[in-house]
Amino acid sequence: MKYSIIILVFLLTFSCKTEQKKSVPQEIKTEKVYFKDYPHAQLERGKLLRLDSLPSKYITPRPVDIWLPENYSKDKKYAVLYMHDGQMLFDATSTWNKQEWKVDEWASKLMKENKIKDFIVVAIHNIKEERWQDLFPQKSFEYLSDEDKTLINQQKNHIKEGSKLNGDNYLKFLVEELKPMVDSEFSVYKNKENTFVMGSSMGGLMSMYAICEYPNVFGGAACISTHWPGAMPIDNNPLPWAILKYMEANLPDPMSHKMYFDYGTETLDKYYPKYAPTVTKIMLSKGYNETNFKNLKFEGTNHSEDSWNQRLDVPLTFLLK
To answer: Three-class SS of residue 260?
Structure first.
């Protein structure tokens, strides 16, 4: 009962508001899908395109936004940054908490100053009711003991009928369906050296998971306020240690990958510092160093877009310089 309440509360607490759920089609249409101008977005810089409901055989259809920098040109190539919780990135007037990451402001500023390479952003919206299932690093459950697996499986039965972990399918959607579309419709580099992934909280976990599962696709991951507890923080929680064991066993080659982690100290972030030493120990033991790994503490910052937008230049510069 304790675990069922934990996950249920987590789903209600950490899901961002978004569009209503739509049914999943049986198969993907073969005709070309076009991202269209989204004039309603209140941007400081650049241009936003949207596909309102991207079909998928893996996950519930959802909007996907493409942010293009000013003076985007098909005569040059751009790196690509895939970001989770896409509805929270650009326009505070449309978000549930009236906050945003300010991705367009920071990206434009850093590119203009030649501090990072030119890039576009692919922003995948979440589905409120399915966010936790989509973003949890699914294979980390294999690192739970049999006793803990039993408890976790019992709690899952109490979430809602038909609910199941879907992180592997979320990544299949990203890699097998979305990325080929982006590669074909935009002037971008397709190699891992120019393909990155970033997210916060559960999106931080999924960014770590993405680069571990697809090291030939992603060359770098930025995990902001990574939610190591995996669910609501409690004493004797088995989930964070299972997640860390998964990471230790599956980290990509440090010679060709970058990994960034950070955390604050207030609100939900106050539960993260206890895991920082283990994260650093694992990364260093696998051959990462200060050139390709960061695990930064931001004292006094909380778990919100307003905190993340104040330090977004740090992970962007680390990944894209």
So the answer is: strand
C-alpha dihedral (308, 311, 313, 314), degrees to nearest 10: -110
Candidates 156, 273, 203; CA nearest to 15 is 203
The amino acid occupying position 196 is F
What DSSP character marks residue 227? -
**Which of 6-10, 68-72, 193-197, 283-287 is least confident?**
6-10
Q: Lay out the sheet containing 47-54: strands in order across.
A: 36-37, 47-54, 62-68, 119-124, 79-83, 195-200, 220-224, 258-263, 293-297
* Cα 76 to Cα 290: distance, rounded to the nearest angstrom: 31
Asked which of 69-78, 150-159, 273-282 is least confident by mean pLDDT, the reply is: 150-159
User: How many whole angstroms separate alpha carbon 242 and alpha carbon 308?
Assistant: 26
The whole-number average pLDDT for the span 51-62 is 93
Q: Which residue from 99, 120, 97, 93 is spatially nearest to 108, judged by alpha carbons?
A: 120
C-alpha 48/C-alpha 29 separation (Å) is 24
Contact 204, 260 (CB under 8 A): no
